[in-house]
# Entry
Amino acid sequence: MSDEHTSGTTEPDRTLRRTPRPGLLWLFAGFAAFAYAFDQLTKLWVTSTMVEGERIPVLPPLLHWYYIRNSGAAFSIGENVTWVFTLVMAGVSVAIFFQLRKLGSIWWSLALGLLLGGALGNLTDRLFREPSFGMGHVVDFIQLPNFAIFNIADSAVVSAVVVICLLTLRGIGLDGSKQQAAAKQPAAGQDEADTGRADTGRADTDREASGDA
# Structure
């Protein structure tokens, strides 16, 4: 019974760890490069074809291109503390690289890749755009009704956070292991032990009853 139970609980882990680690690193790098390149190319297109403050209807009234420069964080938050967000994005980028040695899931590769690509996309603006190094204003241009103006890097970061939240809720760790399954295994073993003790107690009671008879 214990062999069957162990096999059943470890099978999802083997499935999650099927992809070799070098492959996961390439996936991570690919997602990060895609998010970063897409962000920078769209910003280059906006700055070379539009003037600041220009608004172009794309799918009115749902979607417009609206070129602004944002000194704050994602979705124009904290515009008066630009340098803080520069440090935060740099710290996040470094922290992601330290986590790569634990990487063992395709979905975590996606999440961390998008997070790094988005962070580097906006960090590039902070470092190299006007008005000064480390205080640069980020190019934003995507406008939706009753919503902040944002860019591709913001979208990548938010998408990464959503994926990370879903993985955490499902109990899938960075290494790809199912944390909930691991937590349930000792409990199942305890239930089996309790059942065994109960059966032994009933057998002893039956033998005593037979002896008295």
